[in-house]
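BACKBONE GEOMETRY TOKENS
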Amino acid sequence: MALAGCGGGGGEAAQPEDLSAYLREARDVAGWRLDEAAWRRIVVEPYRGLYADYARDFERAVPGLVQQLAAGGAIADREHFAGDPELTRDQAVARWAVPPLFPSRVATIGGAPLDAVMLRDGGRWRAIVGLGAVVHGKVEAIDPPCAALFAVARPHRDLAKTCRDATWAIADAAVRGDRDRTLRACKLADTVCGKRSPP
């Protein structure tokens, strides 16, 4: 199954709007990558400056996504919303990167999450992948202990909204490169999230 073809360009045919139907026939995982213009148009500031990191981590993720699609299994998709306890860390962080109410979606294959956030652009499906790891790296570069705390960003069922909000503040400050605000957000998160161990 030739799933990892080249990314698409202009003049491509529109793809099915139903994500589950599309994933059952998906062949061009590499083509899910947003180009820089689309990235900057879709994501909110300050995530617009992370395109190079996104593109790098996207390429690293392609083989795993290809393998998961090729393995098959029942496919289901749902709205991508903040606070969904079934989100992966990358999916949870990606929710912060797109505007409120933006119509992004997530999917499972054989009951396991496809670790990507799918969105429509120009009649085709694209994906945001790896953003949690990218942001974690930005936090770690500022303060490694804070990065361990930031690992709770995924909305576990037992994670309070105040903790999720605090980890959002860490991410927002870190991707802006604001060390002082990152450290202040970390202190707040340490108070409302409690002590956590690295994943």
Q: What stands out?
A: The two ends are 34 Å apart (CA to CA). Residues 182 and 193 are 15 Å apart (CA to CA). The beta strands are 75-79, 105-109, 112-121, 124-128. DSSP finds eight helices and four strands in the chain.
